[in-house]
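Q: Sequence in, structure out?
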Amino acid sequence: MTGHPFRDTLHVSASQVNAYLICPERFRLQYVECRSPSHRSGDLLFGSAVHGALAEYHRRLQANPVVPVPVDDLLQAFDRHMEEGQQGPVPVMWEDDDGPDKLRATGRGLLEMYCQTIRHNRILGVEKEFRVPRRDPVTGKELDECLVGVVDLMEQEADGTVWITELKTAARRFDDTRLSYDHQATIYGLARATLGYPEARVRFRVLLKTKKAAIETYELRRDAQQFAETKRVVHQVLRAVDAGIFYPQRGWQCANCAYRAACGT
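A: Exactly. Output:
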């Protein structure tokens, strides 16, 4: 243990692991030094607003599955989350082609499509937290830190199939490499037993803000090799953090980075 705030928590999430893999220096600034971001991207605000609105929508369906939720209620929830995000303490940086008005129109269109096309037989849980114990991949010894996360949606089909559904917003379709090796999906597979459904299947449901809006669903299957790889990656990331291995990874991620000034880019 190094004693810095990130490692004192005794848990790690898929988003933290991915943050390190994208840029270790940004990880250090965000999670080790706990610096405040200079801004929040419009895309991040958009994604948070969509997730917030859908969480409200799914909770209402879970509480009363026989009463449809009016689409206007879903759209109003999205507008409210967008407005609250814009009024937060961290300023929003909008892309030239994706200002607030355009993103609001895009989000409303996608959510209306979601309400009209996605059907739920039974919702088992919304934003359900999990903790997965970890073991050293070499010695098998149980480790202090757990893998933690929050499942957007757990639902059951009429045939009894249980799905762990992660909701995503994206500007482009996911490629085969991401679908095959995304660590978040693999961690959800590891979490199935702790969530109470060891045979659950995992999928991404992606709301695409492409030129022609669409909603696509991908089932994500994992084998023993993929589970072992994710466990190894998580372990090595934590070893690197403990060893103080942080360096800037220059590339596409620098353009809108909220910690860019702090790393001297």
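Residues 11-259 form a domain with the Lambda Exonuclease; Chain A fold (CATH 3.90.320.10).
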